[in-house]
Amino acid sequence: MAFVCGCGNAECSETVELTLTDYEAARSQADLFLLVPGHEIGEFERVVEQNERFTLVEKVAEGEAIAPRLNPRA
To answer: Which of helix, strand or coil describes residue 27?
Structure first.
C-alpha cells in the first residue's frame, strides 16, 4: 500500500510503500512517523530506523509535544 509521507512539509505528497501491518506497527506510538528517505528534519526528529524505502522518525522538541494531540489513534 502507498502511504503519504509524514514529513513536516505540508505540500509533500510523496508516498512510502508498506504493508498495512507494517504501517500500523510503525504508527503504534503517537510520536513515530514514516517519511520518504531524506525528508527528516534533524532539529525536530530523531531517526529510529532507515532503509531504501522509508525513514521512521521519532518527533523530539516541539514536535514531541504536538504529535500526540494530532494522533487519531489516541
So the answer is: coil
Question: Other CB atoms closer than 10 Å to residue 57's CB: what's the count?
Answer: 27
Q: How many domains does the chain have?
A: 1
pLDDT tens digits along 17-65: 999 998 998 888 888 999 999 999 888 889 999 999 999 999 886 654 5
Question: Position 41: which residue type?
Answer: I
Could you count the other beta carbons within 10 Å of the beta carbon of residue 41? 13
Q: Angle at Cα 12 formed by Cα 28 and Cα 31, nearest 5°?
A: 25
Domain span including residue 43: 2-70
Whole-prediction pTM: 0.77
